[in-house]
Fold this sequence. Notes:
Radius of gyration: 18 Å
Strand content: under 5%
Structural class: mainly alpha
Strand order of the largest sheet: 1-3-2
Distance between the termini: 39 Å
Order of helices and strands: HEHHEEHHHHHHH
Number of strands: 3
Amino acid sequence: MASVPQAQRLRDLLEDAIVEGHYAPGDRLDPEALARDYACSRTPIREALQQLAASGMVKVLPKRGTFVAQLGVTELVERFEVMAELEGMCARLAARRATPEELEGLRQAHRACHACLEAGDVDGYYYENGAFHHLIYAAGHNAFLTQEATRLHAILKPYRRLQLHVRQRMQSSYAEHQAIIAALETGDAAGAEQAIRDHVQIQGERFNDLVASMQRLQAMRR
């Protein structure tokens, strides 16, 4: 399984707390209070907040502090649409350019996802799923595209993570990964592009699930 640094785990915990409504948009995040809440030093908290600021989850206002940012449903859907296109490009290039070693790395990540699925480990699956996608970015061998896909992936991480808690989503995600790998292994660029676009894009029932989740979070803040 992937080893996760403390700052990354704290970032994930803070992401969850933001997405689940424990911290509302506009709330100030005090590093000292967070260090007490999460029983750690302020150094990994500061690192986690820096990562969240880079991803757009929080905003740092000079001389005022760090505050929770706000994304509406429309903004999220727009970002997922762009994410689907970027990942589609990555997969299309990876189908043509991936080395045998990179394909084997993807198979290993896929097997790690399966182990988490069998164990019912949603958080573990989330981490291995992230590794799977980043391997596809790298296998496209386009540094600029990899950078942009990685940046947007970071912004959407808490919402991708939230989706995995929807019933049967983990199973569906794993099956979609299998279709992506099958296309990559046969060099089917168009098939790989379409498979990963369908995997990432928010539409149909997944759109309804996202709207429902956002409505629940808004109700919690009232």
